[in-house]
Amino acid sequence: MGISFSTWRAGGYANAAVPRPADPATLQQLGGQTMGTTWSLRFDNPRMRPLAEVRDAVDAALGRVIAQMSHWEPDSDIGRFNRAPAGSRHALPAEFAEVMRCASRWHAASGGAIDPTVGPLVACWGFGPEARQDGLPDGDALAEARAHVGWQRLAFDADQGTLTQPGGFTLDLSGIAKGFAVDHGVDALRALGLTDLLFEIGGELRGIGRRPDGQPWRVLVEGEADAARRIALADLAVATSGDRWHTRTDAGRSWSHTIDPRTGEPAAHALASVTVLHAECMQADALATVLTVLGPDEGFSFAERHGIAALFLSHGDASPPVVRTTPAWPPATAA
Predict the structure, then answer these.
(1) How confident is the model at residue 17, as a pLDDT?
(2) pTM here?
(3) Which domains does the chain have, with CATH numbers?
(4) Segment 248-289, tens digit of pLDDT
(5) Which of 6, 17, 187, 301 has its CB surrounded by the most CB atoms within 10 Å?
(6) Average pLDDT in the chain
């Protein structure tokens, strides 16, 4: 399935590729379905590798991520861990362990704003494969969910890539695994000898190399409505997290899928979305989640301290929304 980059809006996140007139024949594109969303690829193919071979490489890479880390798949590695008996010790596949190391790093740095054991709380608030469907959770339900959340109880060994199932814990890597899948797909494409490409899954993108004309890949970023304000993905990735795509409403209250593991409650602040640039999409994905949980003030300070390139878009009393960028955020480009 081909994707039109002139109309594609990246799964709603408004990280969109900027089209060019008169693209050469070597600049090709592919797309497909994965992880409940879509993937798309735009790449320079000077040796004209068969498109079927390129597609197979992408599908195989994404299949590995799903087989290991999709909590929607009962037979995945994460699914088996979530059902495992208390006290059982699990050796993780290399990719799974890499994602857990990233989550561990930012969990510690952020004081728990990202936590892979948040699954019970996500379900309690009506999201994910085990979602409750009966509206606002009561105090007893929240207390039960909180009793099964806590990264430290996994006893994760980062060197050995092992972790323990304390009993009744359900991992949810949806705040980081999609970014890893982008990186894993890029690695698979590099292994084919493709060095100039833009790869996207559900609005998270990574660009490596250059377009055939020597220019970097460029995207329009959420909050940058002016068409002249574009961001170059010169060996960079971009990920966005926000409150406008997955929400629920009950008893006059609306809440997003972003759950603060520290409080057990959905994030409640004026922040509409956060977009992060990083060399790795996994890191950008994790950091976008962290900053969204922390909110517009604490998150902005955290990003400044850690040198994170981030764009914060907040709900305002008047239009347009309030946009703030950290010092590490690059200037917009006009071409």
Answers:
(1) 53
(2) 0.87
(3) 28-71+174-215 (3.10.520.10), 83-165 (1.10.3980.10), 216-334 (3.10.520.10)
(4) 565 555 656 788 888 877 877 778 889 999 999 999 999 999
(5) 17
(6) 84
